[in-house]
Design a protein that fits this description.
Helix content: 25-40%
Largest sheet: 4 strands, mixed
Radius of gyration: 17 Å
Shape: globular
Structural class: alpha/beta
Number of helices: 5
Number of strands: 6
Length: 160
């Protein structure tokens, strides 16, 4: 085992860099997803507040690149046999993924042209799958119904 096998790197990364067409696994010893509606609501409120602190009506979309960042906390990932496994931060990354699923579907409903789907799904060997791989979830991308999205989006937005 080389010294690089235990190397620790700390980098600032944005959501695009962390999730865009990148595959992660969640090891069996990780706890089940357990964040509650209040946690999701707080995340959405924090993200919205951070955005609105700098946004001014009429700002071109390109201005967003220079807006303040929102710190999501650290994510600890280990690499083994070519796979990246989330050691710490899977609850936050899963919440963010659920939120991105909601936004992706909302954008489709509104006729948006930019796709954020690569932040949630990617293809490998012709198979579409979630970027965060959990064995129990592998069946969902092709069968992820609008009913499922509605259920999660209601949780995200606190709608009945």
């Amino acid at each position: 085992m080389s010294k690089d096998d235990h190397k620790i790197d700390a980098d600032d990364r944005n959501v695009f860099d962390v999730l865009n067409e990148r595959k992660y696994t969640v090891d069996y010893f990780q706890r089940e997803y357990s964040l509650e509606q209040r946690h999701i609501r707080q995340l959405v409120t924090d993200l919205t507040s951070t955005f609105l602190d700098v946004y001014e009506e009429g700002d071109p979309r390109t201005s967003v690149e220079h807006y303040n960042n929102y710190y999501l906390g650290p994510f600890v990932v280990s690499s083994r046999d070519g796979m990246k496994s989330i050691i710490d931060g899977q609850q936050r990354l899963t919440s963010l993924t659920l939120f991105l699923i909601f936004l992706n579907n909302l954008q489709k409903e509104l006729g948006g042209k930019e796709s954020i789907e690569p932040l949630v799904f990617s293809e490998r060997y012709g198979q579409k799958s979630f970027n965060i791989q959990v064995e129990e979830r592998k069946k969902y991308p092709e069968n992820f119904s609008s009913k499922d999205v509605t259920k999660y989006s209601r949780t995200m937005t606190n709608r009945p």
